[in-house]
Amino acid sequence: MKNIIIFGAPGSGKGTYSDEIVKRYGMSHISTGDVLRGEIKEGSELGKIAQGYIDKGQLIPDELMISILAKVYDEQPAGKGVIFDGFPRTIAQAEALKQMLAERGHDMGVMIELVVDEDILLARLLNRAIEQGRADDNEATIKARFEVYHKQTAPLAEWFGQQGIRHTFLWSENPSKEAMLEAIYDFLDKENA
Ligand code: AMP
User: Fold this and answer.
1) What is the pLDDT of residues 63-72, one digit of tens each?
2) CB 60: neighbour CB atoms within 10 A?
3) Which residue is closest in CA terms to ligand 1's atom 2?
4) I want to staple 113 with a disulfide (CB 3.0 to 4.6 A). Which of 52, 143, 168, 178 is the partner?
5) CB atoms within 10 A of CB 53
6) Model confidence over 4-21: pLDDT tens digits?
């Protein structure tokens, strides 16, 4: 199975679709947000550093994030393919990911971009705040995360386009979780045939 980078704004469904893709194709899943929340729960040094950024909706510095990612990647079982969820979020992270994979004889595989209207994203995040109690799903932090997304992360979509691996899925064309998943599965089945 090829590696997958799942890409989109906060609330676009990266985690939800990753879980389904993992179930169907049996690959590994690296969610950098989950890794950081795990460190915070454990009370580790890294968790203490990460907390300050997450609470403000800001990104953890690239260098730190890149070293965490490489460590977690090397812990995954070989040969199954990895879905990267929440990483990369900056061009520096993307360049580092490409290099880190090349050093191991691997490549980025395919990038799946989820495009969802902002009013739907906001409603989903507010709903997630109630259902899951994520500390950074409050209105002020959500606003900051959108700003960070537009400024630092969205320009990356074009970078993936230049790499020739960007594949965009529009919620407006597939307006339900099931329809989005069908479109993504169709694409991945062909990619891996
Ligand atoms: P997520 O669960 O992917 O929405 O991530 C939650 C928070 O973790 C983000 O708002 C950032 O503060 C931090 N984070 C997760 N992934 C990254 C990353 N690749 N680079 C920098 N910060 C990250």
Assistant:
1) 999 999 999 9
2) 18
3) 33
4) 168
5) 17
6) 999 999 999 999 999 999
User: How much is the pLDDT for 139?
Assistant: 87
Alpha-carbon distance of 116 to 26, in angstroms, equals 26
Distance CA 71, CA 32 (A): 12
How far is the centre of ligand 1, averaged over its atoms, from the C-alpha of 190 (Å)? 30
66-73: long-range pairs with CB below 8 Å, 24+: 66/92, 66/93, 66/96, 66/97, 66/100, 68/32, 68/35, 68/36, 69/30, 69/32, 69/93, 69/96, 69/97, 69/100, 70/100, 72/30, 72/35, 73/30, 73/100
Q: Which residues of 8-26 are buried (b: 16+ CB within 10 A; e: fewer)?
A: bbbbbbbbbbbebbbeebe
Q: How many CB atoms lie within 10 A of CB 157?
A: 15
For 164, the token pair is 């020739």
pLDDT single digits (tens) 136-192:
988 899 999 999 999 999 999 999 999 999 999 999 999 999 999 999 999 999 998
